[in-house]
Amino acid sequence: MASPTVAEPQPHAVLVPFPMQGHITPFLRLATLLLARGFHVTFVLTEYNARRMERARGHRWDAAAIPSFRVETIPDGLPEPPPDQRDETQDVLALCSSVRYTCLAPFRDLMAHLGRAPHTPPVTSIVSDSGMGFTVDEDFGVPVFFFVTHSACGCWSYLQFPDLVARGYTPLKDASWLSNGYLDTPIDWIPGLENLRLRDFPSFVRTTDPADVLLNLNVRRAIVDVARSAGLIFNTFAALEDPVLAAIRSKYPNLYAIGPLASSSVSSSLWKEDAECLRWLDAQPSASVLYVNFGSITVVTTSQLAEFACGLERSGHRFLWAVRPDLMRDGGAAAIVGELAAKVGDRGSVVGWCDQRRVLAHPATAAFLSHCGWNSTLESVVEGRPMICWPFFAEQHTNCRFLCTTWRIGVEISGEVTREAVERSVREVMEDEDLRRRAAEWKRKAREAVGPDGSSTADLDRLVVDLKPTTKKRPLS
Ligand code: UDP
């Protein structure tokens, strides 16, 4: 006699992104995949970002809009900004330290509330940003997986911080070491990172202060937090970062490379998107436009903005430039951009914030001038667009190095930006057939990875099983 089938309880994952755009976006993409696999998802935003997202979307979070998807909020521990700064990117340093040391208590309350909430299946796993390490400070009775939203090469570089400190490479002896060639020191003994120099490591090594907050947070994360997690999830794919993934796996075997994650069913924008630029692109010839965007955090100086503007003008190529309202701190961007618009006429278009994936996918877009944030990098790879790399901070330097020397689809603007360097690199990226050919090849491999027999699909299947309630709790090392 066949035994009666017992319905599996619905798995419930609590997703905890770091409160910045480049983290919320991939987390929402992961949420979409988990919802499609039958999960109940609780998505944890900070109160500040939840309000921003509601303003950008033009309406409040509707609890019933997507079945099994709930947004919950916790405070980020920072003081409320004045009304005219409520849509500005928060200070990264202050935010990193504030969430690490103040969010545990409200998160504990939230977990208790979820345990009592009616019509809510019991929580079966936590998927936490590796930047939200408070989630492993306490045992919540379910496994905590870390979703590392940056590249595997970036993560592996961060994991070397304790060793770089122990060997005396960082902190730097004094500020002159920033410019005396010391940063060019090869760091060539780390498997998977053989081609790096000290300058290619995340920018937090460029400090002279042994008490530097970000240096120390990263050392602590590498030594304590990661080892407490049950597994590491990456938004990358095996073909792109295999040697690095293998090196990480040798230390932390439970690893999932599930990228590139596709668009989510919920808009994750913290800014209102400009749709006009897509119509402008519709009117441009195929593969003729350079797209310029420095992401959600980068802040430029007046002189940097002016050099970019001048270089774009001199290149003679068409461009679409997203100048975020807070890209420059003193609000002087409008004059520089206005002057540029007057000079180039319809050859260029400037917007505030756009739907980047749609811009990169547009047939008129040829290449991308970027700060090399990981989402931007991967989105460019997915659409087969070569890049001009102008890394700003953190592991963007590592991504830039891999783009230019390993994947060979990037051209770097190094050092202080000049109009000549911008002009030269725009011409190169728009005109070099080899760059385009290699970018098209990576596009094919990226799509293959998430196809039916792809490496990322297999890793996602494995992750979905491991996030379900039957999974035993397993520390990572
Ligand atoms: N983005 C966007 N529109 C913009 C600028 C950025 O949609 O005008 C999105 C972009 O698609 C990416 C994210 O914001 O998913 C930026 O993340 P990234 O890791 O590239 O950089 P960060 O903002 O963290 O420096």
From TrEMBL:
Keyword line: Glycosyltransferase, Transferase
The UniProt record lists the keyword Glycosyltransferase: yes
Record InterPro entries: Glyco_transf_N, UDP_glucos_trans, UDP_glycos_trans_CS
MF-aspect GO terms: quercetin 3-O-glucosyltransferase activity; quercetin 7-O-glucosyltransferase activity
Pfam families listed in its UniProt record: Glyco_transf_N, UDPGT
Domain Glycosyltransferase N-terminal positions: 14-117
EC number of the protein: 2.4.1.-
Keyword Glycosyltransferase: yes
Chain intervals for the UniProt region annotation (Disordered): 443-477
Top-rank lineage group of the source organism: Eukaryota
Cited PANTHER family: GLUCOSYL/GLUCURONOSYL TRANSFERASES, GLYCOSYLTRANSFERASE
Family: Belongs to the UDP-glycosyltransferase family.
Protein name in the entry: Glycosyltransferase
Annotated source species: Zingiber officinale (Ginger)
Organism classification: Eukaryota, Viridiplantae, Streptophyta, Embryophyta, Tracheophyta
